[in-house]
Design goal:
Tetrahydropterin Synthase, Chain A, alpha+beta, about 325 residues, 10 helices, four-stranded antiparallel beta sheet
Amino acid sequence: MNRQVIVFVGIIAAALALFAAMWVAKIPLVFFIVGILFLVVVASLFPELVELKEYERAVVFRIGKYNRVGGPGWILIFPLIERFIVVDMRTQAIDTPPQAMITRDDVRVKVDAVLYIRVVDPKKAIIEIKDYKNAVVELLRSNIRNAVAKMDLEELLEKTEELDSDLHAIIAAAAQDWGIATHRVEVQSIELPPELVEAMRKRKEAVEYKARAETEAAARQISLDILDKAASKMSDRTLAYLYLDSLKKISEGKSNKIIFPLELSHLASMLSGKLTEKQVKGEITAKPDYSEIINSLVEAYKEKKRDIIEESVEKKQEAKKEEKPAGEQKKLPP
């Protein structure tokens, strides 16, 4: 715009100077008009200086036809007969918008991919295709859709790198005719339906719980095997001592109780009686005989259970005797 203003002001100034000179020299008006036309032609043909950066190239068209590729640096453009288009030669990252797709097992997903390209032939990038960026994006979208339709969801999630390689090979072959070099294609994200994500999360938790349970069971089995091997080498007295020692530890504390199935006082009295007899005989030693204690507990348990059974039988017999007179009264005639 500034150049056009300068050219316009220069033409006006030159025209005025020429008119003044012709007026003084008494030159006819026709020469003045010819001089003005000459200045206009020269001004229109005056070249424009265009600066192109290192990563820029200019595709120049002269009278509508391809003429040359200019740059980098300064180039001359004749505005009356030439037009140019600047092309960026740097690597560009083109992010494709996520699109909904359906896998082979009928799962709807959204795939987002990014494409890295670079213009290597400015002439082809401008002449062979109208909009090379939009062209490579649409080409990538269509090929992703075709590839996803041939894969199951599990296969799609596992073979993302293979999908990137296949897409890169397809895009590179097609974009080569447009003067475009494809560096790589990356599938950035695969968005799954929310209900499927929740199901996969629960499945993962179930697998982790199963693995943890199996580990705990294996550890418990190992501890039981070790305990079984150790117990097989112990004597009855040692086992009895460990049993009573465990009862002692369990009963420690204010809120801990040990409940026996029979009356403890009866068992204790019977056991104390047996121990007293042995004490009278002088058989109590410094270390108690736990086997004798256990045998006494067993005998006391059997005796108490026998008493309970006999008492139950007696109660049943008395109940039958009480019901018999009542039955005989019903048999009497009215």
